[in-house]
Specification:
GO molecular function: homoserine O-acetyltransferase activity; homoserine O-succinyltransferase activity
Protein name: Homoserine O-succinyltransferase
CATH architecture of the largest domain: 3-Layer(aba) Sandwich
CATH class of the largest domain: Alpha Beta
Structural class: alpha/beta
InterPro entries: AB_hydrolase_1, AB_hydrolase_fold, HAT_MetX-like
Number of domains: 2
Distance between the termini: 21 Å
Helix content: 25-40%
Radius of gyration: 21 Å
Family: Belongs to the AB hydrolase superfamily. MetX family.
Strand order of the largest sheet: 2-5-10-6-13-14-15-16
Subcellular location: Cytoplasm
């Protein structure tokens, strides 16, 4: 069952938010969407944290575009694993994003021009502090659950460590306690594609009325390769050549699109360049790189999670080589070291990292069962 048409809400925060970089930002907006009803005790709230290119629009149909379905619509809604008949679900567009919350495209009140490259660096921890203010706005003292996949899972973990008494359950899907060197390398190559685009103009391309589309296209193509498994790409595309009806199967020996997988990647790159902001891409990938809660504890994740009290569900996917199951097991071990309540599911799915966004019956069944347990402790 669908939530139907949903409308976002803009929350304004005048008080400065101190950032990990030492900078601060005031008079900023965060765009949110909410689904379901907050009960009288305000103990049925679920926060959904988004990944790199997603937003506050978690579920339902956008009021502005009937083709725009929420990025986790198969997970959140009436009768779905995160059931909005039982829970009040909040999606927040993070600070620095390009979907309505204050970010590089926004006007800097100090200059009257877009922030552009001057927008401060933000971290996962900064986002969590901003989300805590959203919780305060709704007078939510404690979330029934904080949930996220990929970068969203990092935020859920950070919530359990930074605000341990404000989270009852933490659901971390296809995530990691820190990026590997390989992951940082992929992000750097993608950023380099943007930075080297002649239309980037040091991040102030808005003043030139251009957009570094070429860099964005390449960045998305690189990212998309890492989101899929080899088996999934082989099944979808194999080595099929693109041929018009009547054309021979001979190679054209050109550098134009020849293979189906090339066509797919170029399509994804073009689509991404249409809707995403390059400065936002740089900011968010750097936030991914910086996340490392164990760093302040001599690289001991168990020590970093010593104050956590939330129950956990951790989910990984066997073919996810970007955030492999081994990384999820690191989280599970740290939680068990602290004698915490943790459930772990490793789903044998062929779709790579993107599996967390897809409708796998075993995966959804696990999440549904976990939220049914949460619902039993929530007042009607």
């Amino acid at each position: 069952m669908s939530l139907g048409v949903v409308k976002p809400e803009i929350l304004h925060f005048a008080e400065p938010l101190s950032l990990q970089s030492g900078a601060s930002i005031a008079d900023y907006n965060l765009v949110v969407e909410t689904y379901g009803q907050l009960n009288a005790e305000k103990n049925n709230a679920v926060l959904i944290c988004h990944a790199l290119n997603a937003s506050h629009h978690v579920a339902g149909i956008s009021a502005d575009d009937p083709e725009n379905i929420g990025w986790w619509d198969n997970m959140v809604g009436p009768g779905k694993p995160v059931d909005t008949n039982k829970f009040f679900v909040i999606g927040v567009n993070n600070l620095g994003s390009c979907f309505g919350s204050t970010g590089p495209m926004s006007i800097n009140p100090a200059t009257g021009k877009p922030y552009g490259a001057s927008f401060p660096v933000v971290t996962v921890e900064d986002w969590v502090n901003a989300q805590a203010r959203v919780a305060d706005h709704f007078q939510i003292e404690k979330f029934a659950a904080v949930m996220g996949g990929s970068l969203g899972g990092m935020q859920a973990m950070a919530w359990s460590m930074m605000y341990p008494n404000r989270v009852a359950n933490c659901i971390v899907v296809a995530s990691t306690p820190k990026l590997s060197a390989q992951n940082i390398a992929f992000n750097e190559v993608a950023r380099s594609a943007i930075l080297s685009d002649p239309d980037f103009h040091g991040g102030d391309y808005y003043a030139h009325n251009v957009k570094p589309r070429r860099g964005l296209r390449v960045a998305r193509m690189i990212g998309h390769i890492t989101y899929l498994s080899d088996d999934d790409m082989a099944e979808k595309f194999g080595r099929e050549l693109r041929r018009a009806e009547g054309d021979s199967d001979e190679y054209n020996f050109s550098f134009d699109v020849e293979f189906e997988v090339e066509s797919y990647l170029r399509y994804q790159g073009e689509k991404f360049a249409d809707y995403f902001d390059a400065n936002t891409y740089l900011l968010i990938t750097r936030a991914l790189d910086y996340f490392d809660p164990a760093k302040a504890y001599a690289n001991n994740l168990s020590a970093a999670m010593k104050d956590v009290v939330a129950k956990f569900l951790v989910v990984s996917f066997t073919t996810d080589w970007r955030f492999a199951p081994d990384r999820s097991r690191e989280i599970v071990k740290a939680l068990l070291d602290n004698k915490l309540d943790v459930s772990y599911g490793e789903i044998d799915a062929p779709h790579g990292h993107d599996a967390f966004l897809l409708e796998d019956p075993r995966y959804h069944g696990l999440v549904r069962a976990y939220f049914e347990q949460i619902a039993m402790g929530v007042n009607p």
